[in-house]
Amino acid sequence: MTSTTNSRQQLRAELERMPDWLRRPIGNASEISAVQRIVKERQIHTICEEGRCPNRGECYANRTATFLLMGAVCTRACSFCQVDKGHAPMALDPHEPEKVAESVRLLGLRYVVLTSVARDDLPDHGAGWFVTVMDRIRQENPGTEIEVLTPDFWGGTGRNASQADRIRTVVTAKPACYNHNLETVRRLQDPVRRGAKYDRSLRVLSLVKEFAPTIPTKSGLMVGHGETEAELIEAMQDLRRVECDRLTIGQYMRPSLDHRPVDRYWTPAEFQRLGEIAQELGFEHVRSGPLVRSSYHAGEAP
User: Fold this and answer.
1) Per-residue DSSP letters for 86-117?
2) 249 vs 93: CA distance, rounded Å
3) DSSP reduced 3-state for 162
4) CATH number of the structural domain 22-296
């Protein structure tokens, strides 16, 4: 028996042990295939597809989608993420803004989330590209709201722009919401988010509020890495201290045997409790559930 066969059997066994509450129908196949066709024809990417999000059918039906900008190769190597990693990402496609704007129009999307791979290789880490795509979407789809989910834009101080400058660039374009995920608790940052830092991520959200106090900020936490409830509450408190307005909490699900294993599956009742705690702490909009992801029902926030 080959190692490949063993790996497949091990992953299959792991999937079979997954709790029932993490299993859901894929949704309307025709709606999913329509999005897949439009995206494939234009050679652009969505995190819905690259990350194999379990909610993509529901989101497509609700006329929301999350586009993955600047290619499908990330310069970071987070142990939980399914997006491809590499030190030599592809060159920016000069037609990507037009392709994304056209896809938004063809799909009739009322609310769009723009995210990206980390592009530490670019002088501004891609901040200006977010703005370029936002501008093009608005030209072609003036009624569509745009949320951004950005990396931390961290890089060497001598590389043309600082982290603050890059964040200010995106904030100046006035997104409907600015999202940056903390992902996990302080203790687990290094093994889970290689290349990212807890306080650095908090600073992203703090800077957004400093530059534009009226723009809602949002962050996300994944459970299942070995964190405790007390550590999650501490992370929520830290997010509230930087005036983060919205929060998503979801279950980490291992994409492959090359990724970090799941420590445990939190129950729906535990997610409900976490959501209630978040609301008590003052988050104005909370989504907490096993299948919740960063952009889940993003357009329904107040």
Assistant:
1) -SSPPPP-TTHHHHHHHHHHHHT-SEEEEEE-
2) 33
3) coil
4) 3.20.20.70
The single-letter DSSP state of residue 158 is T
For tokens 């909490």, the residue is 249
Q: How many residues does the chain have?
A: 302
Show the low-confidence residues of the chain (pLDDT under 70): 1-16, 24-32, 47-57, 60-64, 73-89, 156-161, 256, 301-302
β-bridge mates for residue 221, sequence order = 183, 249
For the entire predicted model, the pTM comes to 0.87
Phi–psi pair at 120, nearest 5 degrees: -65, -10
* End-to-end alpha carbon distance in the chain: 55
User: CA–CA separation, 119 vs 99, rounded Å?
Assistant: 20
Tell me what pLDDT residue 24 has. Answer: 65
List the chain domain ranges.
22-296
- 11 contacts: CB under 8 Å, gap ≥ 6: 256, 257
**Residue type, position 142, single letter:** P
Question: Which pLDDT tens digit goes with each residue over 4-34?
Answer: 566 566 656 666 678 988 876 555 566 667 7
Q: What is the pLDDT of residue 295?
A: 81
**Tokens of residue 239, six digits:** 């997010």
